[in-house]
Amino acid sequence: MRLRSWLLPCSTAAKPSCNKPPEPSSSSFYLSSDGSSLSEMSANCSSSLTSTPSSDTSYSSLQTNLSLQSLPSIPSLQKLPTITDALPVSVSQHHLASFKLPISHLAVHGAYLYVATAHEINVYDRITFSHLTAFNDRDSSSGSVKGISFLRREILTSHQDGKIRVWNLSENNKQFKLVNTLPTVNDRLRRFILPSNYVNVRRHKKVLWIQHADAVTGLAVNGDSVYSVSWDRSLKVWQGSNHRCVESVKAAHEDAINAVAVSAGGTVYTGSADRKIRVWAKPETEKRHVLVATLEKHKSAVNALALNEEGSLLFSGACDRSVLVWEREDSANHMAVIGALRGHRNAILCLIYVSDLLLSGSADRTVRVWQRGADGSFNCLSVLEGHKKAVKSLVVVSEGESDGVVSVCSGSLDGELKSWKLSFSPNSNIMNCR
């Protein structure tokens, strides 16, 4: 598999940050001819340690990992554990399934858990974890599934072929039916005649501005709006009611965009291989989204973004092995960095935030569980180990507000699907965090 040359020198324990990528050319963000996956590139943006992860998650292990200072200029938000600290969580692990191909994305909606491997999406019961069905299993031409999101009763999937597919679930026979492919045929027909509707994507090649010219790496939904980002460096906005593309930011970043998140208020965050997070908003006086801020603290490609429910905290993970925590400033509609969470030995590939818990999955094959305290600091409650390759996706399956149990699923590039049950002690405020 050929990798982009600038992604290779990313951090190891001896080299804490990625080298600066070269200035992008007009075609630098396109797939190589062998269709290499950026998820695999991200997994390799930090070289793997030669030793296997230790199964010890005790005080000494946490102390050792806290010594890895990947971004020393940013203060740490972690509380150093003391020898008398009792971690208020117990963990049980269950192996759910093994796939021949890497797991690229996990999602939960309604009664179902969705597991994407290559072009196929497997569906499980989110309570019993029994396999129910699979869809898109015959259309290998779509390429691997990069993201899954939900708009009312519709399921949206983004693919390596640059398209977004819309599915409906029939409750009668539990079958998933493809109802649309974005951009739609009608949308293309409305625009293909006028030359002004075409944009240059590389030398001697033009496409309609409503099309993604490369893999669609992320989806986010807010109200009736769907936001998509791509390796082609663009951000697009789709209207959910008619599946039309209503807006496109052609060069939202200088390099491939890997992640997107949107707050309930409509503020959009995009994370890119150019090491930047950009903040987009649509003022009442404007017809389109405008760039309101660029957040530049990471030293390498940004792979993952997550927001808390209020949209006041943003978490970002990158190849520099750090999770940065950003807080919304009262005087602005964007974020300022307040600290870093350290401990992972390799690139951060996925993040989820639920209640007061942040979970981070990494190319070091582990998942870390962080809890936010009342003072804004974070404790690393546990290090979940068991995967043999990079952890690519995380999803919360159930939240037990009454019994203090949170169930999480993780998917990795070794094709392993695992379930983790996190049980919190009665004195932990996780049960009363809402």
From TrEMBL:
Residues 25-40 have a biased composition (Low complexity). WD repeats lie at residues 250-280, 295-336, 341-371. SUPFAM superfamilies: WD40 repeat-like. The keyword Repeat applies. Keywords: Repeat, WD repeat. It holds the Pfam family WD40. Residues 12-40 are annotated as: Disordered. InterPro entries: JINGUBANG-like (IPR045182), WD40/YVTN_repeat-like_dom_sf (IPR015943), WD40_PAC1 (IPR020472), WD40_repeat_dom_sf (IPR036322), WD40_rpt (IPR001680). PANTHER family: F-BOX AND WD40 DOMAIN PROTEIN, F21J9.19. This is Protein JINGUBANG-like. It comes from Cucurbita maxima (Pumpkin).
